[in-house]
Design goal:
The chain has helices at residues 3-11, 35-48, 67-70, 77-80, 90-93, 111-116, 121-132, 164-180, 191-199, 215-227, and strands at residues 18-19, 55-61, 140-146, 149-150, 185-189, 205-207. By secondary structure, the chain is α/β, with parallel strands linked by helices. The longest helix is centred in the C-terminal third of the chain and has 17 residues, at 164-180.
Length: 237
Amino acid sequence: MDIDGFLDKLQQYKAPFVFNPWSDYDPSCDIAPYAPYIRSSNLKRYLELRLKAKYLFIGEGLGYQGGHFSGIAITSERILLGWHPDVDLKRVLGEWKYVRTSNPESSLLNDIQKRKGFNEPTDTVVWNVLSRHNLAAFEVILWNIFPFHPYKEGKLLSNRAPWNKELYEGIFYTRMLMELVPDMAILAIGQKAAMTLDRYGVKNSAVPHPSMGGSNRFKAAVAGLFAGRKDSNNEFI
């Protein structure tokens, strides 16, 4: 399978209370009906730059402040717009003219979101950790065990934990990604990602999720893993 084939599989997914950023259009928040095309182009570019990646970091699901609008897991639109103080947008997509997909005129956005796009705290923590451990921008792929955005009924701009059924469905996309970019060491961010990977026999190393006050535990756990990194076969010990 190539990147276009992988994108096609992602774009076909439909489910209740799930936003598919690569095929769904939300007139209340998206800038125009072509927004899914922009997000698809972002993901394609992101993967093209990482076909030789060594590490796969897997979270739980897309957040409404992150991949919902950027189309890239654990990556906010504010990073891609160049407004993030800590993360250089070139580390994500290289030389790339990013077009925002959130509508700056939407009444659902606050003032800073209208000016600078959405920002997700988890994204900042993860990208800063990658820099701290001197990981080259294109040797890590960020992903989610459920690659779409699960939201609460009646509130698109909200997050909910993926249901067990969704985790089961999501593992198939993770396997596709692993076939697309083989031999990556896998780091599971959070219990749901780790338990799902374990259940389906996907070897991984687990670290705490950085959300809800877990930032320091996440940083310490990643530091411990990379202190024992085997560069020769991309494994953690």
